[in-house]
From TrEMBL:
Compartmental location: Cytoplasm
PROSITE patterns documented for this protein: G_HFLX
InterPro entries: G_HFLX_dom (IPR030394), GTP-bd (IPR006073), GTP-bd_M (IPR032305), GTPase_HflX (IPR016496), GTPase_HflX_N (IPR025121), GTPase_HflX_N_sf (IPR042108), P-loop_NTPase (IPR027417)
This protein's name: GTPase HflX
Span of domain Hflx-type G: 198-364
One Pfam family per UniProt: GTP-bdg_M
UniProt source species: Zoogloea oryzae
Keywords from the named record: Cytoplasm, GTP-binding, Magnesium, Metal-binding, Nucleotide-binding
First and last residue of the signal peptide: none
Family listed: Belongs to the TRAFAC class OBG-HflX-like GTPase superfamily. HflX GTPase family.
Listed HAMAP family: GTPase_HflX (MF_00900)
Functional note: GTPase that associates with the 50S ribosomal subunit and may have a role during protein synthesis or ribosome biogenesis.
């Protein structure tokens, strides 16, 4: 449904500074997003504003500059690293004479490229249709207001109604199928819970190194790459920890700042699985300039999916790039807060294994104590 930038698509990036800071990091992130979608970045236009312009998002002069740079660099698309309204998109496309894509559409696009499992594909399609349906409605009201409905009645209106109805039917079908898969999944999860195995989820910003760490710990061949959203489907593996026995470790989809809401909604089953863990290992790219911003973005998605209060230990990954030493850090009460390691070189991996072993042993002891204590009735 959404047009996908074909590989080799020449993209011009637009980043507007509203005084929120971290512009360099935002620019390098959107470049990586564009490349992850298969595009080649041919230029960047930056601007500065107090607030978005209602009609064109950017001002008139800036729009002209974007048009010029796009033409000069033979750009096929202009990517705004912002969410723009359907009306702004239409106005811009007309003005720039070039296809315009916003940040949400770009992220949805990458998810569409990456989805492998049946469930993942259904979730992405649902998110795309929901993104589209808000645009149909918004586009409609916008035109209605402008032209008092004239020119929108008759066959055109019928077409829009039909599109909306078909869209609604497809959305309902997808939701039903996903609900069925979710029921099956919760049966599997209950079976796992009955075995009283500690379940640990790797969560974190996209590209932090979750899959690399997952592979290093479990020797599984999960796909790890220098791309955003390399992982979409949750993979779980048993991890043997000697005296503590087995735990279940899950590799999950990465988070990003301003994750499109339709995606969070469509992926809520996958995300809920994250929320069902006993412990979260929050993997952080400690070498990123935007480290603190990424940690905050991940914690806010965790809150959104009801996982904000789960026990969490941060794993500061990529210490080979920061030259820090492997280390376990604790707070004033002795609670473990951080493990510094490198999933790539393996430095500090043993420390993390030991931390997990201790948590698993505590979990076992707590379960044993609970089963020994008399039933409440
Ligand atoms: N220097 C360095 N690079 C690392 C380390 N761990 C992972 N990487 C690199 O970081 C990039 C992302 O790694 P992934 O494991 O795919 O990251 P992820 O968190 O699973 O990413 P998504 O699945 O896209 O959310 C890859 O290029 C890895 O090689 C590390 O310890 N040091
Ligand atoms: Mg991954």
């Amino acid at each position: 449904m959404l047009e996908r930038p074909a590989s080799g698509t020449r993209a011009l990036l637009v980043q507007v500074d509203f005084g929120q800071g971290g512009i360099e990091e935002r620019l390098s992130e959107v470049s990586l997003l564009a490349e992850s979608a298969g595009a080649t970045v041919v230029g960047v236009v930056q601007g500065r504003r107090q607030a978005p312009d209602p009609a064109h998002y950017v001002g008139k002069g800036k729009a002209e500059e974007i048009g010029l740079v796009a033409k000069m660099n033979e750009a096929d698309i202009v990517i705004f690293n912002h969410d723009i309204t359907a009306a702004q998109q239409r106005n811009l496309e007309r003005k720039l004479n070039c296809r315009v894509v916003d940040r949400s559409a770009l992220i949805l696009d990458i998810f569409a490229l990456r989805a492998k499992s049946h469930e993942g594909k259904l979730q992405v399609e649902l998110a795309q249709l929901q993104h589209l349906s808000t645009r149909l409605v918004r586009g409609w009201t916008h035109l209605e207001r402008q032209k008092g409905g004239i020119g929108l009645r008759g066959p055109g209106e019928k077409q829009l109604e039909t599109d909306r109805r078909l869209l609604g039917e497809r959305v309902k079908l997808l939701k039903d199928r996903l609900a069925k898969l979710e029921r099956q999944r919760s049966v599997r999860r209950r079976a796992r819970e009955r075995r009283d195995v500690l379940s640990v989820s790797l969560v974190g910003y996209t590209n932090a190194g979750k899959s690399t760490l997952f592979n290093a710990l479990t020797k599984a061949g999960a796909y790890a790459a220098d791309q955003l959203f390399a992982t979409l489907d949750t993979t779980s593996r048993r991890l043997y920890l000697g005296e503590a026995g087995n735990i279940v470790l899950s590799d999950t989809v990465g988070f990003i700042r301003d994750l499109p809401h339709s995606l969070v909604a469509a992926f809520h089953a996958t995300l809920e699985e994250t929320a069902a863990a006993d412990l979260l290992l929050h993997v952080v790219d400690s070498a990123s300039e935007d480290r603190e911003g990424q940690i905050a973005a991940v914690n806010s998605v965790l809150e959104e999916i009801g996982a904000g209060t789960l026990p969490q230990i941060q794993v500061w990954n990529k210490i080979d790039a920061t030259l820090a030493s492997p280390e376990v850090q604790q707070d004033a009460c002795g609670k473990i807060t951080r493990v510094l390691l490198s999933a790539r070189t393996g430095e500090g991996l043993e420390l993390l294994r030991q931390v997990l072993t201790d948590v698993a042993l505590e979990h076992k002891a707590a379960l044993a104590a609970a089963s020994e204590s008399p039933e409440p009735f």
